[in-house]
Amino acid sequence: MFVVPNFEIIEFTDPICVWSWGSEPILKKLEISYPHNLKISYVTGGLIEDIRIFRDDINDIGGDIEKSNKNLAMYYLDASKVHNMPVCVENIKIFSKDYYSSYPANIAYHAVKMQTEKIANKYLRRLREAHFTEGAQISNPKILVELAKDVGVKIGDFLQAFEDGSAENLFQNDLLYTKQNKIYDFPSFLIRNNFNGKSIILRGFQSYNSLKQAIESLAEGEIFEIKIDKSIENILKYLQDVIKITPMELKMIFDMTDQELNKILKSLKKQGLITLEDVGTSSFIYYIGKALSCDILTGICEF
């Protein structure tokens, strides 16, 4: 029987929000730390409707497209130094004369969500990967279709929802919800207790501890964080499930120091269980080992 999670974190986001990309490790750790009590959802707030009229005077973004692309790339690099998720700005093309809005990627997310929320969330992750590490112009509908294929979307249904206005209507609902909650910073997080309706909004990029404290404040002693054992067996099982992950995500999920992370990655690479792909400011970890066989009584895993 399906049980509704006690708590929900709603991230107000946009696929091109670099601080939302930086929040991925934090949300992954929250899902693992509260496995039966927490649901992660997304509201697409639409970061840039039209870069030609957008204004961010502090970072000199908006107006001239080429200048905005250059300054956005610099902004991405600066953000990566803080959150440590990979960013590669070599040959990145964020906006162009024909594709000047982040809205199409938001609408595409809803076109997938009309099929299934689970795949839509995988699609959102793929959009972010493609944008921040591959330089993909995710305002281009052709690229949005190609990325949808990567996560197993039914393309015919996707195109219909993307083109007939139904996905855009859902996006407009998100824009209204964002405005109603007075959200001006992406990401922002609405943490809600689904049992009593109490909620908290945290605005802007947040640490794991700030979101954890908000959850436990609303929980009033009802739920507690589960500590994740950073055994090699647990790490291998997790890598086998996700196949591809960033070092920052692995580090945060298992509460590792840089020294511990580097030691484990070096060992797994030497054993031929993972490969590392350098990507701009960081890398991706790919699990390439054989499937694990785990004893359900002892929890010990073997190849």
Shape: globular
CATH top level label of the largest domain: Alpha Beta
Rounded mean pLDDT is 93
Q: Give the number of helices.
A: 11
* Helix content class: 40-55%
- Major sheet strand order: 2-1-3-4
Number of separate strands: 9
One letter per element, helices H and strands E, the order comes to: EHEHHHHHHEEHHEHHEEEE
Radius of gyration: 20 Å
CATH superfamily of the largest domain: Glutaredoxin
CATH-derived topology of the largest domain: Glutaredoxin
CATH architecture of the largest domain: 3-Layer(aba) Sandwich
Helix-strand category: alpha+beta
Oligomer: single chain
How does this structure look, described?
The protein is of the alpha+beta class and 303 residues long. It has helices at 18-33, 65-83, 103-113, 117-134, 141-150, 155-163, 166-180, 208-219, 232-242, 247-253, 258-270, and strands spanning 7-13, 38-44, 188-193, 199-203, 244-245, 274-279, 282-287, 293-294, 301-302. The chain folds into two domains: 7-180, 3-Layer(aba) Sandwich (Glutaredoxin), CATH 3.40.30.10; 232-302, Winged helix-like DNA-binding domain superfamily/Winged helix DNA-binding domain (Arc Repressor Mutant, subunit A), CATH 1.10.10. Helix content is 47%, strand content 14%. Strands 2-1-3-4 form a four-stranded mixed β-sheet, sandwiched between helices. A three-stranded antiparallel β-sheet has the order 5-7-6. Helix 3 crosses helix 6 (155-163) and helix 3 crosses helix 7. The protein is globular, with a radius of gyration of 20 Å. 36% of the residues are buried. The mean pLDDT is 93.
